[in-house]
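[AMINO ACID CHAIN]
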Amino acid sequence: MKKDMLYAICCLAFTIIIGGAVYEHLNVVPRWTAGPPASLSMFQGKYGLNPALFWKIIHPVNLLLFALNLVFHWRSERRRTLLLVLSSYIVILIITAVFFVPELISITTASYAQITNAELTRRAATWETLSIVHLVILIVMALGLFTGLTKANKPVVTPAH
């Protein structure tokens, strides 16, 4: 029973990532992509929006939960699901660190100007499109993770040779 709860908490924490991304795509991204660099002012200054804190907390928590679940479910049918989602998640985190975060920082730290910058607007639109693809992949991964709840958490019996 405790293993089931730990797995459910892992699913919940992973879903929180999706919730954060959906929130940003519905409420934040449309604002900052509307007319950069003027629309980027929401990230700048003393009271600028800083979503990084959320992401810096939620990702390590998820990685820890995946690691704990792998330990507790290593001999169960859930191991394969956990390994598949975790390895996909690590790839997503690497892509995020290599592309999404640096590009977002590069765009959002552009100097303020009243005139819309066509190049920044194009880059913001590309970032947004790729980020939506990124989000859809995360949703598919979460659905896969949730399927693990339907699998037994008892040790898999392997036939003796």
